[in-house]
Give the backbone structure.
Amino acid sequence: MPTSATGCVLPHQYVERSSGTVRTEALYGDRVVRFVYSSLREHAPSVYRLVTGRWSSQLLGLANYDLCLGTRLRGPGRYFRSWGIDPDECLESPESLDTPRKIFERRIRYWDCRPMEADSDLVVSPADARTLVGSFEETSSLFVKDKFFAYEELLGPDRLEWLEAFRGGEFAVFRLTPDKYHWNHTPVAGVVQEVYAVDGVYHSCNPAAVVVEVTPYGKNRRVVTVIDTDVPGGTGVGLVAMVEVVAMMIGDIVQAYSENRYDDPRRLEPGMFLRRGQPKSLYRPGSSTDILLFQPGRIAFAEDLLLNRRAPGVQSRFTLGFQTPLVETELQVRSAIARRVPTEEGDPS
């Protein structure tokens, strides 16, 4: 675990995009995670494997969100305040959100409280999350290969077409904490090429666990959606892969794309056209991660995300664990993260 010279566990900090302020994260279940990924991992590997398995993850989620801690809340307002949740954003009345599960799976008035720029050249964040951007190209200043996932594992075995399509490109990792709004939204507009699940385990997304269990995002169960944006009405940034990664206490990823707000949700299928910024899926419940993959040379990340990554004086467990500056930026769903790079003159995209 990342510790100081005196053995104290160091905090994990990030940059809040809206204000530029450095914040210290209140890590949910940090003591338990540190125990699992230090003592259990080292001294009881069979128990460690059991704890990070699907059955244990679902049982932990049930206990936290549906049983002893999931009973009806007396005055949800206290829960909202302790987690920094704005009840005015919620689509349902605060009084009706009377269990931890209901609060976790809440819907918000995103069309009002998460506005999206109209510029069709922009790629937007798929979630309310803390993000890091990087590149698979070793000559890039964004090169952080093999920190969060092994590229050859991420998209699943035998997916050679997609592995070749994104090789040498860019990526963005979005870490959702338990207090966040847990609906994912479409980051681009385009046509679904393929949707498939890759089986795996249920590692925690706590930064301490990520540092210890190297490349966990490529080992966890995940759902991959490949979108072709070089189509009429598309964003024009080539192929984009959206990888939704489960984590400890996540029971499921529900695909529920809606053209208008949350109305008439549908499962994704190849050939569907997806509008940018629309609800796509829901995590049930816990912490989780989204990863976006881009083809080489098709996007340029927002300047503030690049600068914040190396922000001086910020204590990030990722920096300590990987021995390179890696500071997350907290941002909102549907906010711009990248812009389309113009292609050759005459290219319709």
